[in-house]
Amino acid sequence: MQLGFVSAIVGDLDLRGVFELAARLKYDCVELMCWPAGPPDRRYAGVTHVDVGHSATADLAAIRRLAADHGVGLSALGYYPNPLSPDSVESKTAVDHLRRVMAAAAELGVGINTFIGRDPRLSIDDNWPRFLDTWGPLIDEAARLKVRTGIENCPMLFSHEEWPGGKNLAISPSVWRRMFAELNSPWLGLNFDPSHLVWQWIDWERAILEFGPRIFHVHAKDVVVNREGLYEHGGLALPSLYHEPRIPGRGEIDWQRFINALRSAGYSGPVCVEVEDRAFEGSLALREQSLAASAAHLRPLIQNR
To answer: In which band, very low, low, confident or very high, does the pLDDT at 53 lie, cut at 50, 70 and 90?
Structure first.
């Protein structure tokens, strides 16, 4: 396995700065964010370390040189919009940009990570026809380009705007099975993040062992379930009322057990730290500290064989 981090947390660094930081902290790889230029519509969005809207072949060659010069690989390109948004303009923008991310990933020889999306007002079944209509052609394009597409399992259910269904369909084993059965392609898989399963009370170890061959990429993010918040509001409340993301080692996940489960499932790819811990958001120095602390916790587990 390779230890990496998601570049969204250091959006104030340019691309060279990201590689310099990764090399200094002895990370093996980075997942580079590829949002369209413009203001973010939520936390951790809007970061553009690879501008796929304007990247020429020469630009992508420069990225490869930066990676080689710093001894840091690319784990994937990341873009996490809502391709199934009920807003037709938002949906079209997301789908069109995803195609550009795929094309850039093909040139760089890496995969992409993203969300399926969802109309939060509709049930999973009612979203399903649109999912097939939208993602069938996208996965055909991924197959043509030979780009593995990892779907993250975050429900995107953190505000009343996203209530009640969230903005991402791919949230649970039952959905993943259906997704892989109906779009049965070797280019469609998971970007697996255990933290989202913890607060849904889904056994992440069992999920790893069942879906191991479909895990293309891994996000390492920890979580604390606030039992007082859960007592006050219950499990049907907005999840933000009873859970908080943490950096690895400061939450409820047993990371040695997690890495062992990945190995048992045959996974040998990137494990990328995703920092969404508010305790480290106050400054660039704190965000760098979060990446250093995460690496210190995870590296011995990944290297211990």
So the answer is: confident
Q: Contact at 8 Å (CB) between 252 and 221?
A: no
Q: Output the pTM of the full model.
A: 0.96
Q: Which of 87, 229, 233, 238 is nearest to 164 (CA)?
A: 238
* Contact yes or no for 195/150 (Cβ under 8 A): no
Residue 255 pairs in a beta bridge with: none
Per-residue pLDDT of 191-249, as tens digits, reads 999 999 999 999 999 999 999 999 999 999 999 999 999 999 999 999 999 999 999 99
Per DSSP, the residues of 55-123 read --HHHHHHHHHHHHHHT-EEEEEE----TT-SSHHHHHHHHHHHHHHHHHHHHHT-EEEE-----TTS-
Contact 221, 248 (CB under 8 A): yes
Closest of 209, 203, 131, 198 to residue 170, by C-alpha? 131
Structure-token pair, residue 227: 């039992």
pLDDT of 106-145, one tens digit each? 999 999 999 999 999 999 999 999 999 999 999 999 999 9
Q: Do 162 and 156 form a contact (C-beta atoms < 8 A)?
A: yes
Pick the closest to residue 10 from 292, 255, 207, 265 (CA basis). Answer: 292
